[in-house]
Write a structure and sequence with these properties.
Length: 173
Amino acid sequence: MDKEIFDKATSLMTARNYVEIVAMMTEELCLVENEVEEFQVRMWRTNAFLRMLDDAQAVEDVRWMMDHIEVASKALKHFGQEDEKHLKEECYYILARDEHRHKKYDEAILYYNKVVELNPHLAVAYQGRGAAYYAKGDMAKAQEDLMDYLRENPKAAEQLNGNFEADGKEGCH
């Protein structure tokens, strides 16, 4: 990532213009020439998405982006169908996590379903959806998603110590 892009991203981050950083970094992702640059761009974009969750307007920005994805895709140079799919996937994941955080498990599950539909190999989507099912008390679906999570993320089995994160489920650890 060249110094001009880095400086602009830094300025946008300081000004809390996370949506602009995401758009800029998505465009930059199409232009990277090596894995180091791709890593840098992905980190900036991921950081912007995560910081959006700290902002009161973040979820509304994501909802706006989802409602205007076609406009956004036309505005971004080199933004193809695969990039649009990935952006939608990230946005739905953020929306799912926000609903989950607010204990709106049915809404969270709907968003996690959209993520899985777009990317059936995204392990964290199964983990989140499974946690939402668990919090609702639907152990069968929670277990199914845990198994899908482990299938898509085999190294997680080594790290799993019998704990399945389920925010909101009282007394279950």
